[in-house]
Design brief:
Helices cover 20% and strands 34% of the residues. It is α+β, with helices and mostly antiparallel strands. The radius of gyration is 17 Å and the shape is globular.
Length: 240
């Protein structure tokens, strides 16, 4: 029994603008908009979507989750950076140092992301979206491997990584340092039980794996808000 990854969700002050930015960054398609949530649909075989949900709060502090984008050459890396800066990204310093081969940027709402140098062996074979990269302990990597049924493809030096069994889409990785948590994460995973499993049964399984049910003021909603072993929020949706 496992859950299926449905979406990586962003809190956004301007969901339409942020969705357009990431559509251009990933070459994904802007899908529908329902209840102030704008969806990006993958065009590269990735099995989940990106959702941008309207929130009033501005970003505070460094995110625990960021995206790593691949590049195929130095020219491609430079052109990608130039294109995204023109669309509203900006260069930022998160301590990467002057010798870093990757380029660290922030999107129009300040969410950190990296454009990785060409020839990166770990991300070889990935499409533009190479990794959902998370601060985290090994325990959280083990949790998500069991939660999604994605095998561990890396487990060394306090770093873990998982990838879908069919190798479609990006890695999800965890490793130090773990940034202090300041309020609710701006990015979180939305998952759903596989066919034939009800939501409550799946919630109970996730609790047994180390998750907890939490209240972030969501009120009466059809999804269940939980936190993984490192305290990162995620949502368990109804079966679909």
């Amino acid at each position: 029994m496992t859950s299926r990854l449905i979406a990586l969700a962003f809190d956004a002050n301007d969901p339409r603008r942020l969705a357009r930015f990431w559509a251009a960054a990933l070459d994904w398609a802007v899908g529908g908009e329902i209840d102030d949530v704008v969806t990006l649909v993958p065009t590269d075989g990735t099995r989940f979507e990106l959702d941008f949900a309207l929130v009033p709060e501005a970003k505070v502090g460094k995110n625990r989750i960021h995206l790593d984008l691949t590049s195929t050459s130095i020219d491609d890396q430079n052109e990608t950076v130039e294109k995204l800066v023109a669309l509203g990204a900006r260069h930022i310093d998160v301590g990467q140092g002057p010798d870093a081969e990757h380029v660290v940027l922030a999107d129009p709402e300040g969410n950190e992301f990296c454009v990785i140098e060409p020839g990166n062996s770990f991300l070889a074979g990935c499409e533009r979206l190479g990794s959902i990269t998370c601060d985290g302990t090994p325990a959280v990597g083990y949790f998500w491997s069991a939660a999604l049924g994605w095998p561990l493809v890396w487990d060394q030096g306090e770093e873990t990584a998982i990838r879908a069994p069919d190798l479609a889409g990006p890695f999800i990785t965890w490793g130090p340092p773990v940034a202090p948590k300041i309020g609710k994460n701006r990015l979180h995973l939305d998952i759903a039980p596989i066919d034939g499993v009800d939501q409550q049964t799946e919630v109970e399984r996730l609790v047994a794996l180390g998750a907890t049910r939490i209240d972030i003021g969501q009120g009466e909603v059809e999804w269940v808000v939980m936190a993984d072993p490192d305290g990162n929020e995620f949502c368990v949706l109804t079966p679909r």
